[in-house]
Amino acid sequence: MDHIGQLTPSGAPGEGPPAAPRITVREASRSFVTTGRSAVHALGPVDLSIGDDEFLCVVGPSGCGKSTLLKIIAGLLAPSAGEVAIEVSGDHRIPIAMVFQDYGIYPWKTVRANVELGLRLSGRPTADRREIVDDWLARLGLTDFADVYPGALSGGMRQRVSIARALAIDPEVLLMDEPFAALDAQLREVLQDELLAIWQARRRTVVFVTHSLEEALLLGDRVVVMSARPGRVIADIHVPFERPRSSAIRTDALFAKLRGELWTSLHSEVVAQFDAGKDRP
């Protein structure tokens, strides 16, 4: 798998998608073999081109391979077929960061130590690390919990630690797997607005998996809709709202229209995935 490589620019500047995509997924698919079962075709083939500094949201029915796709892009899973190419500048020791559904933080490290980990691995000086960590703890409402261990935190707070750790290293590519799913509705909206502000100030390529159509339209430049398993792209929708944005666009009539279009694309796939689950022995 060609996971990190240089891509050949194509196309004219300013016309359509960026000339040099940050991420290119070419006919990627993934199959799994389960105990006592034949191979399960989980994903693909998937083709995607994701631009530099683009915010791409991915929606689809549960079990369609969204998280699998994200892990393939991250290099955590090899595709059974196809490839992924990611263009990185070489300026970052850790150019890609991922926020997992299950937090992925270390229970034996404090909140501060967890957030600091990527900075430490990348060789940042101690004084710089402390300043950066303090900033992200404040942004995500964690300052008072800097010296607390994850076991004493709620699930939502643990996820905020995971988000802070990823953002602290300022990666070129940020992969987020339902990062706000464990949060209550009010905090979720606060952090959506915070993420919008962060992205506006420090534009990076983001691939964001979510089950929320509203969240996808609020955050994304594009929304990709995936089919029932094996997941493949069945719709690719441009989000027309100007930036900077805030959650106020939820009241826009066009927002409701686009949400309806997304659901129309997705509804039959959700039903198909549900029916497939019922048919299992």
Q: What report would you give on this structure?
A:
Residues 25-253 form the ABC transporter domain. InterPro entries: AAA+_ATPase, ABC_transporter-like_ATP-bd, ABC_transporter-like_CS, ABC_transporter_ATP-bind, P-loop_NTPase. GO terms for molecular function: ATP binding; ATP hydrolysis activity. With 281 residues, this protein is an alpha/beta fold. It has a domain at 104-171. 35% of the residues lie in helices and 21% in strands. It has seven helices and nine strands, in the order βββαββαααβαβαββα. The protein has helices at residues 66-74, 111-121, 126-139, 155-168, 185-201, 213-219, 253-278; strands at 23-33, 39-50, 55-59, 81-86, 96-99, 173-177, 205-209, 222-226, 233-238. The strands form two sheets. Strands 5-6-7-3-8-9 form a six-stranded mixed beta sheet, with helices on both faces. Strands 2-1-4 form a three-stranded antiparallel beta sheet. A hairpin with a 6-residue loop joins strand 8 and strand 9. Helix 2 (111-121) packs across helix 3, helix 2 packs parallel to helix 4 (155-168) and helix 3 (126-139) crosses helix 4. The longest helix has 26 residues, at 253-278. The chain is globular and about 50 Å long. The two termini are 35 Å apart. Residues 1-19 have low confidence and may be disordered.
